[in-house]
Amino acid sequence: MDRGDRGPRDGPEASRPIRDAWDGATDALERAALATFNPLFYGLRSTLRFRRRGYREAPARGAPLSPTMSLWLGGDRARALAGRYDVASLHARLHLGSYALALLRLDLLDLVAARAPDLVLPHAGERLRLLDVGAKNFDSAIALERFFRARVAPASLTGIEIDAFRVYRGLHSRADVAHYYLSLLPAAAPPHRYLAGDVLEHEERYDVVTWFKPFLTSGALLRWGLPRRLLKPEALLAHVADRLLPGGRLLIVNQEEHEAEAQAELLESHGGLRWRRVDLAEAEMKVDEVAYAFVATRE
User: Fold this and answer.
1) How many other β-carbons are positioned within 10 Å of the β-carbon of residue 24?
2) In what helix (H) or strand (E) does residue 270 lie, and over which residues does it extend?
3) Using alpha carbons only, what angle is made at residue 17 by residues 201 and 172, rounded to the nearest 5 degrees?
4) What's the rounded Cα separation, in Å, for the pair 115 and 80?
5) Among the four given CATH numbers 3.40.980.10, 3.30.565.10, 3.40.50.150, 2.60.120.560, the one describing domain 8-298
6) Could you tell me the maximum CA-CA distance found in the chain, to the nearest angstrom?
7) What is d(CA 127, CA 119) in angstroms, rounded to the nearest whole number?
8) Residue 175: phi, psi to the nearest 5?
């Protein structure tokens, strides 16, 4: 599980500010309402499993980019990333927001690898197996496939999302969008996959596991429409870490400093992982809101 998304037609994700203090009567009412209704709507989505064919993207569709995003997308850094990781070839098949998000994720991966070179793991096989936890609509798939293909080896991607049937304004679900993004990638064996389900019930093992913006507080979880019972940071980290093959890499990305501190405590309490924190707050990447990353190796 991780922080939710606004939907592909709205451009790159913009995470809501994290408020977990719940101050005042208004927050108390909001918390009570979310705690009551989230399980109902989440249960309905999970039961209906809504899918609709025909999802496509193109640059002319989707919401316009913000001036800041447009400026970054036209800059030297974005152009260099597009060339280095062969993303420009997908421009005609993505919304501008989706294209920008792919470059932002590549920017993040590139910056993390520069500061924590062990992210680029030695790999003797022909293909990596990679799991993205809390994949949402798997909007990270393009960046992950391109990055590891260029830096390590081609990857077979698996995205897993517990709330895979959230429906966007265009009446397509996260699952619809995810399958479209996977259709843009080179064929893989084993094939790329998008799984609707709980990672705690997933038992396969991988060379690399990525986890963008995991939920660490009940406030963030509730405000993104999920039942409070799904907040299990300790159990989730233990199980996700166990999905790594020996020597495998785990990349966790957090949004705010207090989350990074909580993440560090969780990693410290978990044996079997050698990890380092990467502070991106002062890095060139200013458009996306993530600021902290952790790279861990299973010993």
Assistant:
1) 9
2) none
3) 55
4) 19
5) 3.40.50.150
6) 58
7) 16
8) -60, -40
| Tokens encoding 73 | 């997308």
Question: pLDDT tens across 155-167, in order?
Answer: 999 999 999 999 9
Q: pLDDT digits over 127-150, tens only?
A: 999 999 999 999 999 999 999 999
User: Which residues in 35-54 are b (16+ Cβ under 10 Å) and which e?
Assistant: eeebeeebeebeeeebeeee
Integer CA distances (angstroms), 54 to 92, 138, 171, 187, 205, in order: 17, 17, 11, 20, 32
- pLDDT value, residue 280: 84
Q: Give me Rg for the CA atoms of the chain.
A: 18
What backbone phi and psi angles, to 5 degrees, belong to 99?
Answer: -65, -45
- SS3 of 74, please? coil
197: helix, strand or coil: coil
Residue 86 structure tokens: 């062969």
Quote the CA–CA distance of 119 and 249 in Å, as a whole number. Answer: 6
Q: Would you say 132 and 158 are in contact if contact means Cβ atoms under 8 Å apart?
A: yes
What's the rounded Cα separation, in Å, for the pair 157 and 138? 10
- Amino acid code (one letter) for 215: F
Contact call for residues 260 and 254 (beta carbons, < 8 A): yes
SS3 276: strand
Per-residue tokens: 256: 């705010």
Q: What is the DSSP string of 80-97?
A: HHHHHTT-GGGGGGS-HH
Count, residues in the chain: 299
Position 10 scores a pLDDT of: 44
pLDDT the model gives residue 26: 54
Alpha-helical segments (H) within the chain:
24-48, 67-73, 76-84, 96-115, 141-151, 174-183, 218-223, 233-241, 257-269
Q: Going edge to edge, which strands form the sheet with 193-196?
A: 193-196, 155-161, 128-133, 206-212, 244-254, 292-298, 273-279
